[in-house]
Amino acid sequence: ETPQHDADNCPFCRVEKEKELAGLALVQVVDSDGSIPSVDARQLLGLREGQTIVVCGQGQIDKLGTVVVRTSGIYVRP
Q1: How far is 75 from 40, CA to CA, in rounded Å?
Q2: Model pLDDT, residue 21
Q3: pTM higher than 0.90
Q4: 46 contacts: CB under 8 Å, gap ≥ 6
Q5: Is the pLDDT assigned to residue 27 strictly greater than 70?
Q6: Are 58 and 34 within 8 A, CB to CB?
Q7: CA-to-CA distance for 13 and 31, rounded, in angstroms?
Q8: At a CB cut-off of 8 Å and minimum separation 6, what does 37 contact?
Q9: If you average pLDDT over residues 41-66, what whole number do you get?
Q10: What's the pLDDT score for residue 12?
Q11: Strands laid side by side in the 53-61 sheet
Q12: What is the DSSP string of 39-77?
């Protein structure tokens, strides 16, 4: 919070106000060139329903107020 912060026009604050969407993020799996592979991430990483993953990467808030993380690393918890 800063004096210049306008919570009514802040995309992050808007999302936080909407309980249904709070805490959700879009994770973009990218290759070494920064491109999104054409294969589904679940297939690419061999993931199955209910697994927990830890994602490292650069996050930002898009125009719709969604947190978007471009991955630089993924760890699948056992």
Answers
A1: 17
A2: 60
A3: no
A4: none
A5: yes
A6: no
A7: 31
A8: 29, 30, 31, 44
A9: 88
A10: 76
A11: 25-28, 67-76, 53-61
A12: S-HHHHHT--TT--EEEEEEEEE-TTS-EEEEEEEEEE-
Distance CA 67, CA 24 (A): 7
Amino acid, single-letter form, for residue 49:
E
What is the spatial distance between Cα 45 and Cα 76, in angstroms, rounded to a whole number? 9
DSSP state of 38: S
Give the rounded distance of the alpha carbon of 39 from its chain centre. Answer: 18
The contacts of residue 78 (CB under 8 Å, 6+ apart) are none
Amino acid at 63: K
φ and ψ of 6, to 5 deg: -115, 95
Of the two residues 65 and 58, the one the predictor is more confident about is 58
Phi-psi region of 20 (alpha: psi -120 to 50; beta: other; left: phi over 0): alpha
